[in-house]
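Q: Structure tokens for this one, please.
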Amino acid sequence: MSDFEIVAREDFSEVTYLLEVRHPQMARAAKPGQFVIVMEHEKGERIPLTIADFDHDKGTITLVIQAVGKTTREMQRNCRVGTHLHAMVGPMGIPSHIGQAKKVICVGGGLGVAPVYPQARAYKESGAYVIGVLGFRNQSLMFWEDKFRACCDELIVCTDDGSAGIKGLVTEGIRQAIARHADIDEVVAIGPPIMMKGCADATRALGIKTLVSLNPVMVDGTGMCGGCRVKIGDTVKFACVDGPDFDGHQVDFDDLMARLGRYKSTEKSALEAFNESCRIRATADTVAPDKAADPH
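A: Here is the predicted structure, written as tokens:
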């Protein structure tokens, strides 16, 4: 049996869930901005997941996952307290450079709210004034507001439908923060590529340093496969070993989104096959008791 025991789980919504995994050595080594590669079972897919939190004292790594594809839905079904992950490799990637910034905006959109939390906390611990900008589709999908209020000097919540905070995208939150503070040193943004592109566009004309965490398709996490290559200015980088943090003003987001879109049909087929297997299993579980009760 592996040593990667799941010691806590929390479900934030029907599709978003948290797993806390015991691994003291990894927890001691983890830093903001890094990620792990996880396999749920021996024949499972290897998927990269950004570290959402780590606790040196408890010896745990926290992952926040959105069940959008076959593997993440399978993990949502199977990963319970007391079960074990087959493999978890990390921490991987270059840790975020916190530096000496005095005033920072930390932006998280959707699932990106989780991985930007360690960075917001690290900036606060370094003495910076931290403004958090969190974006969700609606209030029911919100999570970790309390954690961000504990490490942010200001917190701006944005929802698409206005059910919480201000109505609008995170770019509106950035605009409001910049309007109140003319001395922003850095912006850190993590979320869907289209959101990070919007954040970079919002700060480019003002010359505010903007860092984004990229999420291209990744296989081995060592730079060998080349699947996670991204265009940064005039150069090609590998997100797994050169990132995942990059200068948002230099990232070719159109190329990134095009590359991510190439695998949509494969991902869809895998998810459909998984859903069908779940349907067959549910049907079998329903029929079995009736057969067992039949004396013939």
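A few notes: Residues 264-293 form the longest helix (30 residues). The chain has two domains: 4-92, 103-260.
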